[in-house]
Every structure is written in C-alpha cells, then in structure tokens.
Amino acid sequence: MAADTAQLKEKCKKTIEAFKKDLTKIRTGRASANLLEGITVDYYGTMTPLIQLANISVPEARIIALQVYDRGAVEGVMKAIRSSDLGLNPSNDGNTVRVILPSLSEERRKELIKKLKETAEEARVALRNNRRETIDDVKEQVKDKAMNEDESKKAQEEVQKITDLFVKEVETLANQKEKEMLEV
Length: 184
Hints:
- It contains 4 helices and 6 strands.
- The chain is α+β, with helices and mostly antiparallel strands.
- It has 2 domains: about 5-25 and about 105-180, Ribosome-recycling factor (Topoisomerase I, Chain A, domain 4); about 35-100, Gyrase A, domain 2 (2-Layer Sandwich), CATH 3.30.1360.40.
- The protein has a 4-stranded antiparallel β-sheet, with helices on one face. The protein has a two-stranded antiparallel ribbon with strand order 1-2.
- A hairpin with a 2-residue loop joins strand 3 (about 55-60) and strand 4 (about 65-70).
- Helix 3 runs antiparallel to helix 4.
C-alpha cells in the first residue's frame, strides 16, 4: 500500500482555501466587504458575526456601507469595528454605518505586509505538518511490513513534491496580495 497522496492533496487544498480566506481579511487600498468578515458584535449579550446583523455593500472604492437590521445594534456594530485590528473609524446616520477607508500610510502598509508574511508562514507550517503526518504514516507502514524501503523512499519523494507544489502556491498568492497592497 502506498502513501495516501489523495488525502494529503485534500488536506493541502483545504489549507490553501483557508489561506485565501485569510488573505481577503487583510486590507489593501480598496474597500472589500470581506474585510469585515471576521468581526463579531456583542448583540444583547451574545457574540454574533457582523454579517448576520447587517447587509454589507461597497458603494465606492473606499467606502463600506452596512445597513444594520436592528437599530439597537448600530452602536455595538460601530464599537466592534473600532476595536478590530483594522484601524477603521465608522460613522453612522440612523441604520446605516459607513466605514471610510483612509489611505494607507507607508507605516500601515509595512504592518499589513508583516501580517501577510505571518499568515503565509502559518499556511506553510500547516502544509509542512500535513507532509510530516503523511511521512509518519509511510514510516509506520514500513514498520508494519506493509511497504518496503524502496517504496517508502518513492512515497516520501512524492509527498515532498506535492508539498512543494502547494508551498509554491502559497508564495504566489502572498506575492500577488503584496503587490495589491503596494499599489497606491
């Protein structure tokens, strides 16, 4: 029995999808509804995702508008946005909360790029953990005599190739995001 490369590929694909989702939460110069995705609001004592409390739209390149469903939640929504690590200051006019994205300063861009690099490193670590688990399975099969040493070596090389492919994809996605962030 060979290494379970299909399972490894599936785990790696899930890691890449999670990384892509994390990338949408890192700010660039343009407004994006995904930017507010991870924010939770204290809604009558329950931490509730912001997307369940408001309709989020992007009417202009640097403005995010939130149509809050419950007028009583507006202050909580504003507080949650302010306390997020996005550095945003929302304003409201009744049920609508507007978030005007300020221009990114050079310092803020550097902070965001640092965060991007940390996120990319986390994704690479997750991919390497997937590789390690699969190689451990291969070694276990050799120990159980279900695989010989030559098959083990081939399987480990295949696992490494797959991992390298996905690590390269993380690098490509991170470089694209960094380019986006550096656009003025």
